[in-house]
Amino acid sequence: MGPVIRIHNLSKTFGKDGAALSNISINVDQGEMVGLIGPSGSGKSTLLRHVSGLVKGDQTGGGVEVLGEPLQLAGKLSRRARHTRARIGYIFQQFNLVNRLSVLDNVLMGLLGRVPVWRGTLGLFFEQEKLLAMESLRRVGMDDHAHKRASCLSGGQQQRVAIARALTQQVDIILADEPIASLDPESARCVMDILEDINQQDGKTVLVTLHQIDYAHSYCHRILALKQGRVHYDGAAGELTPALLNNIYGTTSFNNHSLPEPRCVLATPVEGLAMAQ
Ligand SMILES: Nc1ncnc2c1ncn2[C@@H]1O[C@H](COP(=O)(O)OP(=O)(O)OP(=O)(O)O)[C@@H](O)[C@H]1O
């Protein structure tokens, strides 16, 4: 199977602010867990939103294909974009749960793209669908909380429920935009463990933006670093040196003690493992 995400010559300019993304070309294969890093404003969230079809690129050309189907090209979404988007789960920094609904009802919302609109609107789900939602909650260790209101949960618990919603949606790809940015270290580790488990056990492709380099380094097989809207590094976590990081972040604070050992290594090296010129 070819890449499940194929981004080619993608650029994005917001108004007169200059390019947020400049001529990005990246392939991501099925089953990869890729960490997207880079300084604030380098374009990480913008890139993720293009892959999910939430934002359209410039009309000058370039586009995104997902799961072998065109998602967008030259600033236009494809006619089948809605269908493709149903196969992508999006995890937000702020969880995006409906606070007044129960945990289970939030997770069942992952099925909205798959059930008739009238059933989804009325919240009528079959027993089998509820079992699927409960199994997803069990997977993230939240089944005991199924009947609580979402607003009663801690941030880390809410993020686990958001992941259970994506599991119930039965997605092929998970895009996670700073999923641990507002969590304490223990909750952050738990959320990253769950994403890693889904990646390794289910073979789901995970593309995750992270500010915490140590988490990106230890959990992700491959690191993509953006700087000023361009790909600055694309390679194995183990090849990411303090010198590269200092260059990417424009700092001198990374040293040999900053990075933990990667928990996994790339099965096959990415072509052109080197910092872009
Ligand atoms: N909707 C928008 N309208 C105008 N400019 C935008 C919009 N979204 C993003 N930008 C700009 O695009 C650039 C990239 O922003 P983006 O949020 O993708 O960066 P980021 O790397 O995710 O940053 P952070 O790590 O702080 O979240 C920034 O200069 C930002 O101001």
From TrEMBL:
Domain ABC transporter: residue ranges: 5-253
Alphabetical list of Pfam families matching this protein: ABC_tran
Record Gene3D superfamilies: P-loop containing nucleotide triphosphate hydrolases (3.40.50.300)
Keyword list, A-Z: ATP-binding, Cell inner membrane, Cell membrane, Membrane, Nucleotide-binding, Translocase, Transport
GO terms for cellular component: plasma membrane
Membrane topology classification: Peripheral membrane protein
Subcellular location: Cell inner membrane
Source superkingdom: Bacteria
SUPFAM superfamilies membership: P-loop containing nucleoside triphosphate hydrolases (SSF52540)
GO MF annotation terms: ABC-type phosphonate transporter activity; ATP binding; ATP hydrolysis activity
Xref: PANTHER family: AMINO ACID IMPORT ATP-BINDING PROTEIN, PHOSPHONATES IMPORT ATP-BINDING PROTEIN PHNC
Protein name: Phosphonate transport system ATP-binding protein
